[in-house]
Structures are given as C-alpha cells and as structure tokens.
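User: quick one
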Amino acid sequence: MQGGLARAAVRASACPVSHALKGRTAIAGLGITAQGKVYDLNHLGFASEAVRLALADAGLTRGDVDGLLVNPGLSWGDMGMASFQLQQAMGLRNLRLSATMHSGGATAGTMLQYAAQAIANRLCDVVACVFSDAPLKPPKPSADTGTSGGSGGAYGFGRGLEAAYGQFGVNAMYALVARRHMHVYGTTNDHLGAIAVAERQWANRNPAAQLNATPMTMEDYHRSRWVVEPFHLLDCCLVSNGGLAVILTSAERARDLARPPVYVWGMGQGHPGGDPAETLASGAALAKQTAFAMAGVTLEDIDVVELYDCYTFTVLVTLEDYGFCRKGEGGPFVADGRIGPGGTLPVNTGGGQLSSFYMWGMTPLSEAVIQLRRDGGARQVPDATIALVSGNGGILSTHSTLVLSSQPT
Amino acid sequence: MPYAKPIPAVTPEMRPFFEFAKRRELSVQRCTSCGAHRFPARAICSECLSTACEWVRVSGRGEIFSFNVMHQVYHPGFAAEVPYAVVVVKLAEGVKMVSNLVGVAPHDIRIGMSVRAVFEDISDDVTLPKFAPA
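Assistant: Done. Structure below.
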C-alpha cells in the first residue's frame, strides 16, 4: 500500500492539474425527493423534482444551470440520452455540458469528477448531477400470492446459460463472492449482521430514512428470511423510487450561495477488472490512491465514512480495501460495533442503502453533504470536517472515491 | 411433464459447446495463439487479444470454487426446487463454470469438493452439463 501511495504521489506531482483541482469546486445544492414506496412520479419526474429541490437549496435558478450529467436508473430503460430527456423536461436551454453516464453504483462519484474538471477548466459553471429511478410499482388491489421475486423483474434478470442453472440477478452473483470471502477469511453472518444492525441504528436517528421507525437486533437479522445464502433479507439494500441531485459549481461561486459549500478535495476511480471472486477486492485501493493524493489526506484525517452498501458484504470489503483494517479482517473489525452510533469510526451515518434509501451512489454522497453541513440532527457526527465517499458498481467492478470537506483547503 | 426451466439458446458462438455436450463431452474455447482456455464464448482472448480459437474437450474434472443457495423464485421452473444451490466449478484447466451440483443437498456442499461433469438431456437440441461429486 505504501509503495502504491508513493507511486500515486509521483504521478500526481508529474500532473499538476490533479492537485490544482483540490478545493476548486464545491457542492452548493442538494435535492432529495420523497424516497421509497412513492408512486406519484416516474423516473423523469423524480429527476426533475430532484434538480428543482437542489437549485432551491443552493439559491440558484434553472437559468443558472449550464451543465447536466444524468445517471439513469433501471426504469429509464434503453431510451438513451437521459440528459437530453431531462433537459427537455425541465426546459433547460443552452447547456455547455450534457452527458448520460453509467459506471453502475460508482456513477455519483464519476459524474462529480467530470463536472469538477469541466468547471475548473471553465468549460461550464453550474452542473447538476442527477440520479433517479422508479422500479417499484404500486401494490395491486388484489393480493399477489405468487412467488415472484419482488423487484426481481427489474433487478433479477437472468443471463443466457446461467439462467438454465437458476442463477438470476445481482444478489446471486454477489453471494458467490461473499461465500468465497467466508471460506478464505472466516467471515461469518454475525460479521455481516453487525453491519446491518449498525446501519439500522443510524437510520433510527435519521427521520428521512425509510426504516427510521423500525429497530433491528442481531436476532432480527438472523431471523430475516434468506434471499440467497449467505445473504439474509437484511443483508440486502432497499429498493427505492425517487430522485437525488447535487449542484456542483466553482468554490468562489459556492461561497456566495445559500448553503455552506462542501468542497471537493479529492477524486479518483478504480476499476480492477478480472474476477472479484478470486481477488475478493473492490477497486477502492486504486481509487483511493488518486483521491487521497489529490486531497492530501490519510485515513486518520477522515471524520465520517459514507460507503456504497448494496450489501452488508460490500461495506466489509470496502473497509478492507481502503485500509481501515487488513484484507480479510473486515469481519472482526466491524463485529464490535465500532461503525455504529457512538463507535470510533462512523460509517453510513444516515442508514445507507440498507436502511435509509437506495439511490445508488447518491445515497452515500448525499449523507456526506448533510454531515459536512452539520445538518445531521440526532445522527450528526460532532465536528465532521472531512468525509470519505465511495461508489461501487457491478460486482465490485467499478469504484469511485470522493474526499469532501467543509473547509476550502 | 415438459421441461419447465429456461432452455438456453444455442447461439452461433455457443453452438460447439452444445454439440460437445450432446456427445456427453465438456468443452471450452482455447486460444490457438497463447493456449489460454476461456468460457463462456468470447470473440477475443483476454490474455493475448488473438481472435484465433478452437473448442476443445476438457477433462470435466474440477472443484467447487463457490456456491450460493437460492431461496427466491425468479422463474417458475425453479419453484419446486427452492432452496437450491448454484455452484461455480473451477475446472482442472483453470476455467470457471456456473452450474448445478447433482446428488448433493445444498447445505452439504463445501468449497473445494472434487466434482466431475455429468450431462442432462433437456431438449432435442440441448444437453446441459452439470456436475456431480467425483
């Protein structure tokens, strides 16, 4: 790891643009629509509403937006050109930047990375980065007593030969990697359950979390039904309808706007390739090199950690890959409750995608903004100044890192 | 009773696999430039980027690399079988295959178990390779 960081530092110094990006841009607006089992808007409606809310939060208007990046969720389908659809829906004119982006769950971080580069290089000034999805349908009047896979229609697609063996969906693919981690390192369901319980305890302090009012014990975790072993239901993220947008602009402009700026200190991506069931690792170690070198921080500087948590297992692996503990020791690391409220390492302080809402990489990003603005209420981490945000897509396939701060430098 | 599970399409790139399987032989692609085996079918060797390849019979011997136990029904053809296991077999040749392990209850499966290929005729065109304890 040290050798890797040293190499990254060399690369960064040879490329002054990287360090020149630290603190140049800031998140000025955050828009979160109603989340969860809400059916009054479709994917485009949620996206429009999220941008409207984010602009109002920042004290900006529609006419200020000159860049639009959109990560379409599954319900956008294969229509393509999501950013143009949203531009038309919102009546936006004369954009200088527009793209539809898809790095899976890493996209929130990758959108911000491209937006920050464009703003710092004066290609545009105010970029809305947007995610929305509406995969949930309203309950049918007559009770559906069938054995459907819930959202499996949207998320449980089978692929070619694998479907012949009954291998369907992302849950099943992640389960193969988690089982392997258990075999190699001795990770247990108690370890995974500790993550689920800690995130629920955070959600119980977050009035906006879908499961805010539902407590969870380790016994509840073990009693929850199996989805696909080794994953219980409570190992798996929620599925949510909703939209979420952030407004990124230059640090100078952000300082004149309505809310405290959340400065972008560091950004990086890491896409390892190969078979995650062999490596049992995400792209976090690689993405961290770039992002931490740019930000000039180490793990000891991080006050609050917001990790992509499609599964409890994803959190465990990501903690390992950022170096909070050694590879394979993620289970014992989380077992003592240190990532929950009152613990020494606050992780996913809003409840994450497991217990708050599932807006892909926008869930951890939005919670970091809330914490750095000190808007966290009962879940606020005291003196939170520097946040680590991760995004993760595919089966540990894509990864993005953001280092954000309430301070300009 | 008709076969109710999904029957894989015999695509042009996977046709040789199913022709071997009909003869109760397991096969994978082999790069004729560098010799690397690969599965499922791909146009290009990810080791050397050559497009030259052939389908070759492999031993059918391997071990359980990982497995899951599916409890939800995503397709009605599996409704009577839940919970059932999906396994990843690492063949002696190094290639991995998603499959099923026959004759072993899901909770008796262990990573590292030695397995061999067996074959199940599921339609006129398709014989499906599966695995059994070696």
